[in-house]
Recover the amino acids of this structure.
């Protein structure tokens, strides 16, 4: 039965892929070096780059070329019908001078609406935009810059330094809980709220292809309220705090393929807003395809949550490889009674895992239970199906933490799968669940029965 369900689901995924609108640009090319920018420049050149992007857009669009060389820059803003192309052998190196990234722009920070530091590459309300090329984008995050603002000593923070833990993060959470208007939620450099590397907000028909993204201050790729998005052939290396690789948030019709993730947090994390803000917008992430990707280090390979209050539906993962002693989980769904949200229709097939630290599949409805909120919003996870997933080393196979007083996890299946070298009694299922089924699942060579 479940084999047929998964087969039909991936037919639906193929139809979703056909519906994704693709970018297209005129042949006109604007090289930044034709406008006075020189490789090895000692002063940030973003003002010129942004003028060239605006000129390109006003003239009907085309490609803004970053040729071979190393270019120091500040924040860049993409405009409609522009492809920012980083040529192979080119590096855009972003200044760590925090003052360049203010005044603040509208965005979200960990699922909460606010005005915060301008992302390194930003777009708002644009159509037909792209970030392409085999060059490199370096955020220069390190224990010397950006990362100490996390407030963690292992990332360079010391007493007296600016940090999100000096009250800014808690203030933003309070704004969310109290429904403070967004225009009053203005972060400053003194708040230490690090910017995303790439944040496209309210954009449609978007392509991010082939670029190598290094050392982001915070999340690497953060599409927010976008539609028709393709992320293809991207290489992400970011071991910093909150170093998520690609976090589509309240996005529709998304394809992520042929990418490599080596991150300090989740490789891919699908989101839809946190708590009141997510419920206010009530826009789920939906129709998301992930395939042919390689996941190395990270808290999770493909993750849904934790900021998932607007819900998530129709996620399709196939033909991925995951392998690292520092990869915690393979498929992870995380929420709580503060976050709430409905997560449904998650289909996974043909995933090969060398090893992960904790679990192949983890569903947790009690994530960060210490969070304070004024009332409960019972989350629900249903219709999650895995087929032909193999793993050679993990602590658990399936780890489910449901709620004690609600059957909010149901219709879960793992089929035709083998998990070897599992060290903690195979599976662990706590809380109330319903219709958890294992068919031809072998853990350490022994066939495992499902829990109803």
């Amino acid at each position: 039965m479940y084999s047929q369900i998964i087969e039909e689901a991936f037919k639906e995924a193929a139809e979703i892929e056909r519906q994704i609108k693709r970018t297209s640009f005129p042949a006109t090319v604007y090289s930044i070096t034709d406008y006075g920018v020189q490789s090895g420049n000692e002063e940030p050149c973003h003002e010129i780059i942004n003028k060239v992007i605006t000129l390109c857009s006003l003239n009907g669009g085309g490609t803004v070329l970053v040729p071979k060389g190393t270019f120091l820059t500040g924040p860049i803003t993409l405009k409609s019908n522009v492809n920012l192309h980083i040529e192979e052998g080119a590096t855009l190196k972003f200044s760590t001078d925090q003052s360049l990234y203010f005044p603040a722009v509208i965005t979200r920070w960990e699922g909460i609406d606010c005005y915060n530091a301008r992302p390194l590459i930003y777009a708002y309300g644009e159509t037909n935009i792209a970030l392409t090329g085999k060059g490199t984008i370096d955020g220069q995050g390190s224990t010397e810059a950006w990362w100490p603002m996390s407030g963690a000593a292992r990332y360079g923070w010391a007493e007296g330094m600016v940090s999100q833990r000096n009250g800014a993060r808690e203030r933003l959470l309070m704004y969310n809980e109290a429904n403070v208007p967004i225009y009053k939620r203005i972060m400053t450099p003194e708040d230490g709220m690090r910017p995303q590397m790439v944040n496209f907000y309210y954009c449609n028909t978007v392509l991010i292809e082939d670029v190598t993204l290094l050392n982001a201050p915070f999340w690497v790729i953060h599409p927010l309220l976008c539609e028709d998005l393709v992320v293809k052939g991207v290489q992400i290396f970011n071991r910093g705090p909150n170093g998520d690789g690609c976090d589509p948030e309240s996005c529709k019709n998304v394809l992520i393929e042929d990418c490599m993730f080596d991150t300090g947090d989740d490789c891919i994390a699908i989101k839809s807003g946190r708590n009141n803000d997510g419920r206010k917008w009530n826009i789920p992430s939906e129709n998301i395809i992930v395939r042919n990707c390689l996941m190395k280090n990270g808290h999770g390979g493909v993750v849904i949550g934790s900021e998932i209050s607007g819900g998530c539906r129709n996620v399709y993962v196939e033909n991925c490889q995951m392998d690292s002693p520092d990869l915690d989980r393979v498929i992870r769904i995380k929420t709580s009674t503060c976050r709430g949200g409905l997560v449904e229709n998650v289909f996974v097939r043909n995933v090969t895992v060398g090893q992960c630290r904790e679990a192949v599949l983890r569903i947790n409805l009690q994530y960060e239970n210490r969070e304070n909120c004024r009332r409960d919003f019972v989350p629900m996870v249903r219709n999650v199906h895995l087929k032909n997933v193999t793993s050679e080393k993990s602590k658990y196979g399936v780890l489910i933490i449901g709620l004690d007083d609600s059957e909010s996890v149901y219709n879960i299946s793992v089929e035709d799968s083998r998990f070897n070298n599992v060290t903690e009694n195979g599976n662990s299922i706590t809380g109330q669940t319903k219709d958890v089924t294992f068919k031809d699942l072998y853990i350490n060579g022994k066939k495992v029965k499902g829990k109803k």
User: Anything to note?
Assistant: The helical segments are 2-19, 46-58, 168-177, 275-281. The mean pLDDT is 96.
